[in-house]
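Quick one:
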Amino acid sequence: MLKIILAPLLGGVIGYITNDIAIKMLFHPRKAYYIGKIHVPFTPGLIPQQKERIAVAIGNMVSKELVNSETLRGTLLSDQTKGKLRSVAEQWLERMSESEKTIGDVAEEAFSPQQLERYKERMMREGRRFLMKKLEEANVGQFVADGVMEEIQERMGGQLFMKSLMGKLHDGIAEAVDRKLQEKGPDYCEQMLANVEEDAMNIRFCDIHARLEAHIPRIVEEIVNGYVAAVDRNLDAVLAAVNIEQIVVDKIRGLDAKQLEEMVFGVMKRELSAIVYLGAGLGFLMGFINLIW
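Output:
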């Protein structure tokens, strides 16, 4: 009777211990040991020993199979995501109708005075450059000179009087206007932009909503379309710049053996325990079969 009980029991204990040791040897020991110059086999454990290869393999799998361009594009451009964005845009526009805050109030809440001043200076600088470029492209001097010449000819009954003098007068007017535009244009543009900025910063959001209320459905769709276009245009470049594979590799490299063990056991503790108990069960069964044979 003792033999019948002992053999399966001993087999179960051996199965339990061997599986438990095998699982622990995945992470332990956490460093290599040497006897003199001879390396002790199975030190460090399998996962600490192969951490670099594991990191590269996981990083490659994550970037190529899990978080790749196709997967992210499918998620970011799904009907569900666009629906949520549409809902958020509608709610935000609806809240505008109840807000007495001005654009200036929101800007002051969002940015420090120094940041706000830098943004204003940048917008003023870029706006002035843009307006001056448009004025230069419009060829204002030529336009004004043509208008003056047409007016003179009309007053003279359409007759050409001293053609060479008229040509010089035309060129002189064009040059004078262009020169004054270069001298006074930047200051004029800056003053105009300052007035626009002051008016814009005092606009209330509820007033903006009242003016745009009839166009809100179209505005929401434009927001969604802009989001879709931005994702299509920039996703590949963002993924290339972010380099998800390298991020995963560096993160795993930065984990020590203890952290890796805690991470794996935190996710798979129940499954690993089941393997240990399965070893005990198989050992018990083999011990019982050994009695029969």
